[in-house]
Amino acid sequence: MATGDRKREWEEREQARAELVKTLLQKVSDDPFPSSMMLDLIEELLTPDEVPAYVMFLQDRLRSEPFPSIPMLKRLTAMF
């Protein structure tokens, strides 16, 4: 496989991964009680550069909830 083909294949996979993360984040955003499995999937797909934005996303969720769940608090603190 030529170098250009490998690069194009990597870029296509990266674009698909980024779109999947975006879709999953939208689902989590729309769901008042997102499943831990969906959050786990997101975290497995994140790149190191995306982690700070994800932490902010979780913090925004916590701020909007009058009684944040303990599992969500633990998930957020585990990111550090």
Helix content: over 70%
What percentage of the residues does DSSP assign to strands (E)? under 5%
- What is the total tally of β strands? 0
Order of helices and strands: HHHH
Looking at this protein, list some descriptive labels:
mainly alpha, 4 helices
Description of the structure:
The chain has 80 residues and is mostly helical. It has one domain (3-78). It has helices at 3-30, 36-45, 51-64, 70-78. It is elongated and about 55 Å long. The relative contact order is 0.09.
Draw up the topology in text.
Layout: H1 3-30, H2 36-45, H3 51-64, H4 70-78
Helix pairs in contact: 1-2
Offer a concise description of the structure:
The protein is mainly α. The chain is built from 4 helices and no strands. The chain has helices at 3-30, 36-45, 51-64, 70-78.
